């Protein structure tokens, strides 16, 4: 299996990009869907921002280094990865906060309707944000969503690629169904952006959010992004109406007047150091381009899936078998998934565990090799063979799993 993997690596058009990341020796990193790896350019760029732009140029850098333009500039670079126009995307805040803003915006755009429809088992923060909003939450199983659309639904809010199983929704079909029912749609692209084909405008999507620290490699807690289709820009209301979203923040007016377009989604001052790191990750993904990323993701995950079926048949794959129907991840069910995950990590194979019994492997296409995939399957096969995982130290849960 290792020889086949090495041959595939030799023919991989993205192989050269692995060297653009700073990956630790001896680690097989299959968790880029939770925290992307460190691009080499990031370290230098962040030092430059700290030393020259902050340390030396101080407050002048808001203009001279265009710190103030970072949210729009980085948003514009993310746009081609998700089928958006450059002025429809802005980088800011966390996914959670952007969800809250766009839920509020959607309710304002659909007066007389107060339901946000989603699915049970969506990523927790997505549901919590609805629960903390003035909207009423309605949940329907994946195959019952269309039936649950009615005149009360202001917003259909779904995560495009499910974080646990990797299942992907049909964005075009569900967006159309929601529009036919008079509702808006908000797509969470956290597990999609930079890994799977997304064409928001071809699907006629209204609103979207996505994550900066997963496949975009923006660093731990990197700012997220938000998309609003151009046709909604004039009506867009941001319930977190902060000064950075004002038409003229430095006029210091007492009255809020929103900036044009997605810029009004800004609330407070951009986190410049985090934005600088995010921009390095986004630049690298933009340089590779979404099509090669998608092609590699599918081929690599297919390689892993076939190898697992052969060498670890005890583990049940819960992700769709058809690569275009899933995200860049594969999830497996095992009653002792947590302990298996800990033993793998102790051996330098980093995947993750999702409650209660899911072992999840992400295939960040920019830097994961076929050899990585083969090594992970080999390690797992050995662990299952010798019951190594069945020891108390591997069953104790850490704070972050
Ligand atoms: C990772 C992820 C988030 C993260 O939200 P933060 O507010 O940035 O912590 C939200 N939604 C989904 C679906 C995710 O996968």
Automatic annotation (TrEMBL):
GO terms for cellular component: cytoplasm. Its cofactor is pyridoxal 5'-phosphate. Its EC number is 3.7.1.3. It is an enzyme of class 3 (hydrolase). It catalyses: L-kynurenine + H2O = anthranilate + L-alanine + H(+); 3-hydroxy-L-kynurenine + H2O = 3-hydroxyanthranilate + L-alanine + H(+). Keywords: Hydrolase, Pyridine nucleotide biosynthesis, Pyridoxal phosphate. InterPro entries: Kynureninase, PyrdxlP-dep_Trfase, PyrdxlP-dep_Trfase_major, PyrdxlP-dep_Trfase_small. Pfam families: KYNU_C (PF22580). One of its GO terms (molecular function) is pyridoxal phosphate binding. It comes from the Bacteria. The modification N6-(pyridoxal phosphate)lysine is found at residue 214. Pyridoxal 5'-phosphate binds at residues 96, 123-126, 159, 188, 191, 213, 243, 269. GO terms for biological process: anthranilate metabolic process; L-kynurenine catabolic process; L-tryptophan catabolic process to kynurenine; NAD+ biosynthetic process; quinolinate biosynthetic process. The keyword Hydrolase applies. The keyword Hydrolase applies. Pathway: Cofactor biosynthesis; NAD(+) biosynthesis; quinolinate from L-kynurenine: step 2/3; Amino-acid degradation; L-kynurenine degradation; L-alanine and anthranilate from L-kynurenine: step 1/1. Belongs to the kynureninase family. Homodimer. PANTHER family: KYNURENINASE (PTHR14084). Catalyzes the cleavage of L-kynurenine (L-Kyn) and L-3-hydroxykynurenine (L-3OHKyn) into anthranilic acid (AA) and 3-hydroxyanthranilic acid (3-OHAA), respectively. This is Kynureninase.
